[in-house]
């Protein structure tokens, strides 16, 4: 048994961290909230190869695994990058036998959005190519996007009205389900990065801020809250890696692993972001402080691609059907 | 806050399957267990979760025989060095044996405290004569071991313990009381932490010994727990004479010796991501049996509780696989193991509560009318429920574990400890 990243994946994570540092971060997420562009933005992500990690090499992608994508997605989550790697991962599955479209995903010449009925769709803002499941068929087309005032502008959420669609792959129910599971894993991987960063920011402040004559992180009430958040992050990491590995190596385990990761990610990121605010005290709930940017991501992501209750119910259904026996 | 470290060996992709060598080893283990099946105790699954044997004395003898058979088959002390009576195998092989024992429904080894905690402490700090005298017999359960650390006035604050050892010629004379001593009532030896120098600060005045549990002056009294069973004991030590040759480590070095024990304890309890209490698989079986009979509106809530518990158990299990991978690549068990016990306890409580709630109205009875309490009946879920509060306390309370993770992993400052640098007798701890 070996359950750890390999050297290439560690190198990829380190490389992604270097790329994202300076390209994206809370300052850019704040700017997006005030009407600025997404950072690093679609073209920069395409140029570095991150939108095509799981696109086959002969379609111009990296030919990598979902786990390869997950380690990069974690780094993207840590800096609140946009657009998401969730859409890239999901579209790559949907476009598995469409090399031209997959190439356009990887090189950024098309901006994809995957639509789940009338639920707000991730990366809808600015998208020019929409994918959806209609009557069991995978369709592609244009769309009109209705947006509200964003909670987290980096997610590009909008309700999509499809126009001018054509059937790309008939009878694509299974592929759609797999793509959605892979998307849940990628979302959980981004949430892992965001949650880890929120804990890191909280820990750093708890070491520095003094009250009653000593660092607040020395008080058990503060320390234990941060520890619980950190333990959650490390447990989430295990589910994300398992689910991402399963996507390629053990597809039969993917539904259970993806739903587990999705349920755990929603609650772990929320707790990490709320703990980060609480540890910062009065400064934690100001507009100026970055804490609310992680919190915004948490409050939005926990509702995307199914909330924790929906994922828990899916896990229960799989367990009742014998997934653990 | 990285949890992974770079080494040259880390070039393999994720793989939950056995390597060819591991598969061959597993086949040999499985064959050995089949060959000796008639000589081994077998149990219902999850028999550790607060279950109690009908005849404890007979059960003890059977468990000792079981461990001896396994030891002779080379299945105990797998990763211990051959010079200490072990097999010189890998931690991966040890994990495989653990999995195969569980699969064959062989209960926990009676000497699990000895193998998991006392033995590694004797190996690390004992003399060659002590190695020779104790280790092989420990692996065969010829001697069962216990760990005499906690006292009525020092649980989490272990270094404040008051049991004294005073030098008298070639012996030390021990007086005091220990408590929460697992297996003391069946033990032949124990590792015993004592205060030998009350004039030094509390951590610096401690010394560790091996004590003969049959020596004059050692009195063991079982403690009955809230669930009714007796896993623990009080141990009274009245003028117990221990030869100096049975000291473990130097006088005053007892705290350092104890840390070896405690580190191994946290790896043994929850470090591998194994389920504490009734397993999530047990819950799955119970749910398949009971959930469809609930009213529809209750089913929704029961499914959510089942899902939440299963996710927590899986998160803990796969985190354990990461920890086992790190250890098998040569990493030492670190403070992260404390996080494993914290998360394992939390997951176990979710599993336990989901199970009890599936019992519906039967949950008001420890064992209800027309229920024999066995199999997946109410009795075992009730025993499990009553056993779990102790798990959040024994082997490091949740609060102490959070301090360890907070200070040693996250680098947060400790709380001021006013008694830490004062002579023990002059500190508040001695009163």
UniProtKB/TrEMBL annotation, chain A:
Acyl-CoA dehydrogenase/oxidase N-terminal domain sequence ranges: 8-89
Domain Acyl-CoA dehydrogenase/oxidase C-terminal residues, every copy: 185-308
Domain of life: Bacteria
Keyword list, A-Z: FAD, Flavoprotein, Oxidoreductase
Entry keyword Flavoprotein: yes
Names of the cofactor(s): FAD
Pfam family, one: Acyl-CoA_dh_1
Keyword Protease among UniProt keywords: no
Alphabetized GO MF terms: acyl-CoA dehydrogenase activity; flavin adenine dinucleotide binding
Protein family according to the UniProt entry: Belongs to the acyl-CoA dehydrogenase family.
Protein name: Acyl-CoA dehydrogenase
Source species of the chain: Klenkia taihuensis
TrEMBL record, chain B:
Family matches, as InterPro entries: Acyl-CoA_Oxase/DH_mid-dom, Acyl-CoA_Oxase/DH_mid-dom_sf, AcylCo_DH-like_C, AcylCo_DH/oxidase_C, AcylCoA_DH/ox_N, AcylCoA_DH/ox_N_sf, AcylCoA_DH/oxidase_NM_dom_sf, Mycobact_Acyl-CoA_DH
Residue ranges of the region described as Disordered: 410-431
Domain Acyl-CoA dehydrogenase/oxidase C-terminal, chain residue ranges per copy: 252-410
Domain Acyl-CoA oxidase/dehydrogenase middle: 146-240
This protein's UniProt keywords: FAD, Flavoprotein, Oxidoreductase
SUPFAM superfamilies attached to this UniProt entry: Acyl-CoA dehydrogenase C-terminal domain-like (SSF47203), Acyl-CoA dehydrogenase NM domain-like (SSF56645)
MF terms (GO), sorted A to Z: flavin adenine dinucleotide binding; oxidoreductase activity, acting on the CH-CH group of donors
Cofactors named for this entry: FAD
All copies of domain Acyl-CoA dehydrogenase/oxidase N-terminal, residue ranges: 35-140
Record field: compositional bias (Basic and acidic residues): 415-424
Gene Ontology, cellular component aspect: plasma membrane
Any single Pfam family the record assigns to this protein: Acyl-CoA_dh_M
UniProt similarity note: Belongs to the acyl-CoA dehydrogenase family.
Protein name per Swiss-Prot or TrEMBL: Acyl-CoA dehydrogenase
Organism in which the protein naturally occurs: Klenkia taihuensis
